[in-house]
Amino acid sequence: LAHLSNKAIYLLWLGNLRYQCILLCRQYVQKLLSTQEASYLQSLRNLKKKINLLQSSTGKQTTRTINSTCPRLDGPINGRKLGRSHAVGHEVHVLCDPGYELVGSESRVCQESLTWSGQQPTCRDINECASSPCLNGGTCVDEVNQFSCVCAKGWAGLTCQTTAAAATLPAATMGPFVRPSRCTIMQGTTHCTCEPGYTISGRDSNTCTDIDECELFHNGQAGKLCLHACVNTPGGYRCSCPIGYNVTRDGRSCKDIDECATRQNNCTKDQMCINTYGGFQCVRVDCPKIPNATYVKTSPMRCERNPCPVDNKACSQTPNSFSYHYLAVVSNLSAPRVMFRVSALRPIGDTLRFSLLGGRQARRHFTVQRSDRGTGQLMLVDPVQGPATLEAEVEMSELERRVQLGRYITKVTMFVSQYEF
Ligand SMILES: *[C@@H]1O[C@H](CO)[C@@H](O)[C@H](O)[C@H]1NC(C)=O
Ligand SMILES: *[C@@H]1O[C@H](CO)[C@@H](O)[C@H](O)[C@H]1NC(C)=O
Ligand SMILES: *[C@@H]1O[C@H](CO)[C@@H](O)[C@H](O)[C@H]1NC(C)=O
Ligand SMILES: *[C@@H]1O[C@H](CO)[C@@H](O)[C@H](O)[C@H]1NC(C)=O
Ligand SMILES: *[C@@H]1O[C@H](CO)[C@@H](O)[C@H](O)[C@H]1NC(C)=O
Q1: Residue 387: is the preceding peptide bond cis (ω within 30°)?
Q2: Which cysteines are joined by disulfide bonds (predicted)?
Q3: Bridge partners, residue 210, by sequence
Q4: Does any ligand 4 atom lie closer than 6 A to the CB of residue 314?
Q5: Cα(first)–Cα(last) distance of the chain, in Å?
Q6: Confidence of residue 16 (pLDDT cuts 50, 70, 90)
Q7: Helix, strand, or coil (residue 255)
């Protein structure tokens, strides 16, 4: 075939076809013919290519083999490949990382067939527990290149080889605060580590003991860890607050819960809710019952005397008004300090007098001073340790030429919390 010219083959075939065409239908077949011609030319080209290839390959066989390589080989995961040449006749080797074992062929050769000998190697995690290293009923936990033993009750040590009595920590204390350590044996040396928040302990470094942060940082330079109470937890700690307080966002301090604002109180409708540090108080303002006078509530916290009958001296001597104030303070508040100020809105007469009423209790904690001509102040004289409720009454009288014109009573109730925050 190769010796015939292309044109000769073409004409040979074409002539035959055309002859048949004329006999049938010229127009229809003309179309068919052009496609046939194209496809014929294409197959002829392919044929020529193949012949050329065949011819050249016979002459250049050796060159081609030397030039060829096997497919690229990557090192296995958790291992590596030694040897870079992928050419025919060359070898590569595979090594696994420590803690992994080889599965498949360690060496592979690039063969004449341009394929690698042997099987695709992989590196598999060695099961350190396979040899059952934990004794006396201990449970082995396999990890990469290491293992740890969770010992049965009464046993301790890296491989649970010693009785708990021999170990520094009895097995009975094993719990969330005492954990087994993680140990690695490398070249005959044991290296043990603990989870964060734990520290190595035990005779063989075989256990990890929880660090008591509360104890450790109790009076540390950074100050106490917690404002109120520190609770040691396995591997950590948290701060807690007394009832009536919530731990602040920083987790260290306590902030008072406003029970009055959050409806966490059970005060009735006729009571007022007073938020205190760590709690709340329900208070009810009732006007006093005093002979010869009657009082009426003019605001939730104030009572005023009804007008006295003319010439009723006993009535006109009674206080003109009572006002009520409630203060919430923390325990051990520094003193002396001003707790409350009283002044006359529209003073009449020539003199204002301020005095402290109430029994001995009031006098022990408070005193009343004038701060300016028209103002008196209730002072706390000593720090008060809570929880406590203190009451004090401040009387303000107006006088004109030493004759009393009016008396006004201010009742102050102080709720002292149990804590200093
Ligand atoms: C084969 O070898 C020739 C000459 O040595 C070189 O020019 C060519 O790039 C090589 N081909 C491959 C695929 O390596
Ligand atoms: C306080 O904490 C409790 C529970 O942790 C929560 O339900 C409540 O909303 C908190 N109150 C305030 C005022 O943050
Ligand atoms: C509110 O509840 C407390 C207990 O939580 C109880 O001691 C107190 O008497 C109650 N007060 C009222 C007004 O119901
Ligand atoms: C004051 O009240 C008492 C008892 O309520 C009564 O005996 C007395 O007469 C009254 N005084 C005046 C001046 O009304
Ligand atoms: C009260 O406060 C003072 C100083 O602010 C402090 O030294 C003292 O220990 C506190 N007392 C109590 C009982 O907390």
Answers
A1: yes
A2: 96-123, 151-160
A3: 198
A4: yes
A5: 109
A6: low
A7: strand
The answer to whether 68 touches 110, Cβ cutoff 8 Å, is: no
CB 417 within 8 A of CB 359: no
**Residue 282 beta carbon below 6 angstroms from any ligand 3 atom:** yes
Whose C-alpha lies nearest to ligand 5, atom 2?
Answer: 332
Q: Looking at the chain, how many residues does it have? A: 421
- Nearest-Å Rg of the Cα atoms of the chain is 51
Alpha carbon separation from 104 to 84, 93, 96, 117, 128 (Å, rounded): 19, 11, 11, 11, 20
Residue 398 C-alpha from the chain's centroid: 63
- Tell me, what amino acid is at 197? G
3-state SS assignment for residue 400: strand
CA 390 – CA 392 distance, rounded (Å):
7
Q: Does the pTM exceed 0.90? A: no
| Backbone phi, psi, residue 48, to 5° | -60, -40
All structural domains of the chain, each given as residue ranges with its CATH number in brackets, are 1-48 (no CATH), 68-125 (2.10.70.10), 128-210 (2.10.25.10), 212-256 (2.10.25.10), 272-416 (2.60.40.60)
Half-sphere exposure of 248 (CA within 13 A, CB side): 11
Phi, psi (deg, nearest 5) at residue 171: -60, -25
Contact between 181 and 192 under an 8 Å Cβ cutoff? The reply is: yes
Indicate if the alpha-carbon torsion angle 42, 44, 45, 49 is positive or negative: positive
Of the candidates 390, 421, 100, which has an alpha carbon nearest to the alpha carbon of residue 278? 421
Q: How remote is the C-alpha of 366 from its chain's centroid?
A: 48
| Distance of CA 292 from the midpoint of ligand 4 (Å) | 6
What are the tens digits of pLDDT across the range 126-166? 887 877 878 788 888 887 777 788 888 777 777 777 766 54
Q: What is the pLDDT of residue 23?
A: 42
Closest residue by Cα to atom 10, ligand 3, is 266
392 and 378 Cβ atoms separated by less than 8 Å: yes
Residue whose tokens read 């809570």: 386
Quick one: tokens of 135?
């004794």
Neighbours of 219 (CB within 10 A): 7
CB 205 within 8 A of CB 179: no
Does the C-beta of 266 come closer than 6 Å to ligand 3?
yes
